[in-house]
């Protein structure tokens, strides 16, 4: 009896697998996971929210600095997105809550010649995204994941979420948005990763393939 019950439990929730059942939803070369792997360079930053700020500069009428309290008071939306990491894990239906970028930009006085944005984050992390890509409805400055404030390891207090690009574009611990006329490469992009990073076109690398072991992500910390 007991064994049968155990078996039934197992068959009810099969481990998610890459395959035909996902149709066009899983980008090529990706593996589905229900975990949430944790990936970053350097230490997890610690913050005092009373001194934390987000700077907006570059091609804007006037530079602006937002406090955490100001951002938190802005209208927020909920989204559900699929995310795809260049190390080959994908996660479906991730629930985020935060300020929609296309709403936020209305407050910024961005000059018409701005075409690219450099996202600045702690510690010394940068990643470049075309402004057009940030205007998608599900691109957020996210405070919450799954109804809870971001954990420190996933970007507390604020991260970018750009689900349609490989997840390294979704900078954790963001501190600045620099609007630019010309594109410039960020941290991973100068280190051989693709400047645009569309997972459905497998835009992983800019030159030669970088050999990332297929199972590397399974050895990372996750929650
Ligand atoms: N500030 C910062 N943001 C970052 C990174 C980083 O090293 N520093 N790593 C990126 C990479 S490579 C990935 S895959 C995702 C991972 O986010 P997660 O740890 O929440 O899964 O964060 C991105 N954002
Ligand atoms: Mo990554």
Automatic annotation (TrEMBL):
**InterPro entries annotated for this entry?**
OxRdtase_Mopterin-bd_dom, OxRdtase_Mopterin-bd_sf
SUPFAM superfamilies the UniProt entry points to: Oxidoreductase molybdopterin-binding domain
Secretion signal span: none
* Location of the Oxidoreductase molybdopterin-binding domain: 42-188
Short name of one Pfam family: Oxidored_molyb
Record region (Disordered): 1-30
Q: Which domain of life is it from?
A: Bacteria
Name the chain's protein: Oxidoreductase
Organism annotation = Paenibacillus xylanivorans
């Amino acid at each position: 009896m007991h064994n049968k019950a155990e078996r039934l439990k197992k068959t009810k929730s099969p481990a998610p697998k890459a395959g035909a059942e996902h149709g066009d939803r899983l980008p090529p070369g990706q593996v589905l996971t229900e975990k949430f792997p944790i990936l970053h360079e350097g230490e997890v930053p610690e913050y005092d929210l009373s001194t934390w700020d987000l700077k907006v500069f570059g091609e804007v009428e006037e530079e602006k600095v937002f406090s955490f309290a100001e951002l938190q008071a802005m209208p927020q939306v909920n989204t559900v997105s699929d995310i795809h990491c260049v190390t080959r894990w994908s996660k479906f239906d991730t629930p985020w809550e935060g300020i929609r970028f296309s709403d936020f930009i209305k407050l910024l006085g961005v000059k018409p010649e701005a075409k690219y944005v450099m996202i600045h984050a702690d510690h010394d992390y940068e990643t470049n995204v075309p402004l057009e890509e940030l205007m998608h409805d599900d691109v957020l400055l996210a405070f919450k994941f799954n109804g809870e404030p971001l954990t420190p390891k996933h970007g507390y207090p604020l991260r970018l979420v750009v689900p349609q690009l490989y997840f390294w574009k979704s900078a954790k611990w963001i501190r600045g948005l620099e609007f630019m006329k010309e594109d410039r490469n960020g941290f991973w992009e100068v280190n051989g990763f693709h400047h645009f990073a569309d997972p459905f076109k497998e835009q992983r690398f800019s030159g030669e393939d970088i050999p990332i072991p297929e199972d590397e992500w399974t050895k990372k910390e996750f929650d």
